[in-house]
Amino acid sequence: TEPIVGLKGPQNAQFNVPTEYLKDEYQSIGSQIVNRFGEDAGEKINVNQISLPSLGEIVNLPRDENFTLFIPYHRRLAGRLIDIFLGMRDTDDLLSMAIYARERVNPILFNYAFSVALLHRKDTQDLDVPSVVHSFPHKYFDSKLFSKAREVAHIVPERSRTPIEMPKDYTASDLEEEHRVAYFREDVGVNLHHWHWHLVYPFEAALEVVNKNRRGELFYYMHQQIMARYNAERLCNRMKRVERFTNFEEPIQEAYFPKLDSIVASRTWPARVANMRLRNLRREADQITLDVDEMRRWRDRIFEAIHSGVIRNENNQNIPLTEFEGIDVLGNIIEASILSPNQAYYGDYHNMGHTIASYIHDPDNRHLESFGVIGDSATAMRDPFFYRWHAHIDDIFQNFKSTLPRYTVAQLNYPGVTVQDIQIQTLGGPTNVFETFWQQSDVDLSRGMDFQPRGTINVRITHLQHRNFNYKIIVNNQSNAAREGTCRIFMSPKYDERGNPWLFRDQKGMFIELDKFKVNLTPGSNTINRASTESSVTIPFESTFRNLDDARPTGGDALAQFNFCGCGWPHHMLIPRGNERFECQLFVMISDYAGDRIDQNIEGRCNDAGSYCGIKDKLYPDRRSMGYPFDRQPRTGVDTLQQFLTPNMRVRDVSINFTNRTIGPAQRN
Ligand code: CUO
Q1: Residue 196: which residues within 8 A CB-CB, separation 6 or more?
Q2: For the residues of 489-505, what is the DSSP string, one character each?
Q3: How far is CA 99 from CA 11, 14, 45, 76, 563, in A?
Q4: Would 5-129 and 413-436+466-662 be classified into the same CATH topology?
Q5: Relative orientation angle of helices 326-335 and 384-402, to the nearest 10 degrees
Q6: Using an 8 Å Cβ cutoff, are 278 and 362 in contact?
Q7: Taking 50 as the threshold, does the pLDDT of residue 555 lie above it?
Q8: In 468-596, which residue ranges form alpha helices assigned H by DSSP?
Q9: What is the average per-residue pLDDT within 632-638?
Q10: Rg for the chain (alpha carbons), in Å?
Q11: What is the CATH code for 177-402?
Q12: CA 77 → CA 21, 60, 74, 106, 108, distances in Å?
């Protein structure tokens, strides 16, 4: 067939697609659509006509419904579509299939399945997956902005446009204490990281997509770190640590009014008022029935497994939870992923916690309302209840960790290697002080807003930022030979919410990872200099706030440096906000590389935020249990951090000094 229809694609390209690919109702007006969307196309791409596999029940989810992976029915549809995309012979066929599906499938479902496929196909791995903040900006920005943006798009010529400012505080007032940490919960980069993490580690899809090295353990560790970071922010704001959710009967005090629109559903995201209770779900449209009692049963069975040290598999055999792999199995059971050895028995505990909370306002669908923000991994971190739920999930993991053998001095020390000094240096600033403030950044909304004159429409957001700094670490190698080690850098608040010094057993859960990297030590004194921007936890600032149409380097080193992989803690959130002078303890350890080493080549892309995201298609780049050396109860006799230290570790008091000033988009350091 002569391709006649132009559909607008990224970077001003026009796809010439066979007419049959259009939805039935548009096929007769194909050429008019060309004229409307094709005239300013810079590039034309011809799309092959192929014999298309049936989309089957995938099209049953209406295009104007919200989509989420936390609903089993939705994720089954996503799994089917991912399989179709993964099964396409080559990239030409994939493009044909994608365009055909794009016209028929729920857009959020499409975007998710297509992104997973692009990340996992060998022939598309090097493509940039468009950032979801550009495809679905409504999930990230105050709904008020969009009518302003529409107005600007229609009236103001592109060159005269100025960014639309989004206020830093728009979801609540200071009457609500929880609002003090809204800057963390609603941060664009934090939410993008969480979305990308779940995109890289789906819990249901083809086995080869789900079955990644230590994914259950990373589910535990990445979310444990989110909790540690959130608790640090709370202490900076003179709030107590999150109270973990414990009781399915108890009213949930935390209210949340997200003030987001759902673009596909043309509805606002539902809110939750204070003191609501979780209730049994009966939502036939979503194919979900779930009793709160069922959640209790799953929880009790999980605790049973932890306390007995064995899990029961589908054939009723007892499988021990081992010292190193047990946490990985448990992660898959609790999340749950399809790697759970017995989902019929242990259920889908964590995921269903999201779901049951997300429908608290309409558990039987009598009001025909969709799920709240906690029911979507792109928006879940905005809701204060996310942290209460995840504090509970983390507590389950910590219960398991408490059953493991404690690290002996020999498992912690690196004989002959001594950390002698640590310093934090900011350019022109005092030593051992982190400086934080607000910064504004611009994000282009226009790609996520269809049917209007094109051109950039920037929204200017205000987010936390810190001054770049360097670590200077002096390490003495007393042996006569070169030594290899891993430098592990963590930080924790120095005092608890009452202002008391920590007991080690509480403080160990408060350490946030800042960096981890390999070091080569020559005999004698070694000075290690490391820039904060090299952190193994974060992705570069530019990756969070990149705009799709920005000029970007191609090929070789330039590409590797300007890394677009979306998973990784946003660099601007590396350091908690602090306050006038927030006291912390910086911890540095050099561990023996013999126990850390993973032999693999990690050159390539998506390798710079390995601590929370792993490395694409590789083994997790550290053989130790995740969270080492803070992942277990301390050895007998250790009550404080000082008592925990071996000579290859050192602690230094530092402070985070926050100034309540805001710098512009171009200024930094
Ligand atoms: Cu990331 Cu509960 O897993 O949100």
Answers
A1: 565, 566, 567, 568, 613
A2: EEEEESB-TTSPBPPHH
A3: 16, 12, 12, 21, 27
A4: no
A5: 150
A6: no
A7: no
A8: 504-507, 541-544, 556-561, 593-596
A9: 97
A10: 25
A11: 1.10.1280.10
A12: 20, 9, 5, 10, 12
For ligand 1, atom 4, the nearest C-alpha belongs to 377
Quote the CA–CA distance of 649 and 485 in Å, as a whole number.
12
For the beta carbon of residue 608, count every other beta carbon within 10 angstroms: 22
Q: At residue 440, does pLDDT exceed 50?
A: yes
352 touches 203 (CB < 8 A): no
Query: Do the interacting molecules here have an ipTM over 0.85?
Result: yes
The tokens 């050192």 sit on which residue? Answer: 650
Calpha distance 183→441 (Å, rounded) = 14
Candidate of 192, 204, 220, 223 to mutate for ligand 1, largest count of ligand atoms within 8 Å of Cβ: 223
- The residues, ordered by sequence, that sit 6+ positions from 666 with a Cβ below 8 Å of its Cβ are none
Task: Please report which helix (H) or strand (E) contains residue 190, including its range.
Answer: helix 188-200
Structure tokens at 510: 């408060």
Q: Which atom of ligand 1 is nearest to the CA of 390?
A: 2
Q: What are phi and psi of 633, to 5 degrees?
A: -65, 150
The atom number, within ligand 1, closest to the CA of 380 reads 4
Residue 635: exposed, middle, or buried by beta-carbon count in 10 A (0-12, 13-18, 19+)? Answer: middle
Count of beta carbons in the 10 Å neighbourhood of residue 440: 19
Cα–Cα distance, 286 to 601 (Å, whole number): 44
Topology of domain 413-436+466-662, CATH: Immunoglobulin-like (2.60.40)
Q: Of the residues 204, 217, 335, 513, which is catalytic?
A: 335
For 128, the token pair is 């940039």
| Residue 393 Cα: closest atom of ligand 1 | 2
- Residues 496-525 have a mean pLDDT of 98
Residues whose CB is less than 8 angstroms from the CB of residue 95 and which lie 6 or more positions away in sequence, other chains included: 15, 45, 47, 48
Q: Which atom of ligand 1 is nearest to the CA of 386?
A: 2
Gap from CA of 379 to ligand 1 centroid (Å): 10
> What is the tens place of the pLDDT at every residue in 175-193?
999 999 999 999 999 999 9
Q: What is the Cα–Cα distance from 467 to 668, expressed in whole angstroms?
A: 7
Q: Encoding tokens for residue 206?
A: 């083809």
The two tokens of residue 255 are 């209210």
User: What is the Cα–Cα distance from 395 to 350, expressed in whole angstroms?
Assistant: 12
How many whole angstroms from 319 Cα to the centroid of ligand 1? 26
- The tokens 């990297």 sit on which residue? 517
Task: For residue 381, report the distance from its CA to the centre of ligand 1, in Å.
Answer: 8
- Quick check: is 335 catalytic? yes
pLDDT in tens, 250-267: 999 999 999 998 877 778
Determine which of 44-58, 463-477, 500-514 has the lowest per-residue pLDDT on average.
44-58
Which residue ranges make up each domain of the chain?
A: 5-129, 177-402, 413-436+466-662
Pocket of ligand 1 (CB under 6 A): 194, 198, 223, 350, 354, 377, 380, 390
Q: Does domain 5-129 have CATH number 1.20.1370.10?
A: yes
| Residue 437 in tokens | 């403030």
Compute, in degrees rounded to 10, the torsion defined by CA atoms 623, 628, 632, 633.
140
